[in-house]
TrEMBL record:
One GO location term (cellular component): proton-transporting V-type ATPase, V1 domain
KW Ion transport (keyword) present: yes
Domain of life the protein comes from: Eukaryota
Protein name in the entry: V-type proton ATPase subunit F
Pfam families tied to this protein: ATP-synt_F
Length: 119
């Protein structure tokens, strides 16, 4: 897998997943597990959490994209992830705009710098 690089995984609504799948990110691993989950109204929080954890444990995934409103459902799991790979990036959806104050990665990054660092 190192020769091929790493995959992008997506946890998102139907529009987000469809867009990324049309862009070519869809893959199945050797166990025939996809690198995406379409979250619908009937998708349980447990299923979202288990899928996210399975993406974290896969060595072929380098980036996990997740709609921010879905990330809010499993915030405790996202905040517990401290490794740099796979990177977890929260993205907006068509119906839920991005709110930087809710993004745990951005909050961590802000805590690493002071205003003097940018002078």
């Amino acid at each position: 897998m190192a020769a091929r690089g790493k995959l992008i995984a997506v946890l998102g609504d139907e529009d987000t997943c469809t867009g990324f799948l049309l862009g070519g990110i869809g893959e199945l691993n050797k166990n025939r597990r996809p690198n995406f989950l379409v979250v619908e109204k009937e998708t349980s929080v447990t299923e979202i959490e288990e899928t996210f954890k399975s993406f974290l444990s896969r060595d072929d995934i380098g980036i996990i994209l997740i709609n921010q409103y879905i990330a809010e459902m499993i915030r405790h799991v996202i905040d517990a992830h401290t490794l740099s790979i796979p990177a977890v990036l929260e993205i907006p959806s068509k119906e839920h705009p991005y709110d930087a104050s809710k993004d745990s990665i951005l909050r961590r990054a802000k805590g690493m710098f002071s205003t003097d660092d940018f002078r």
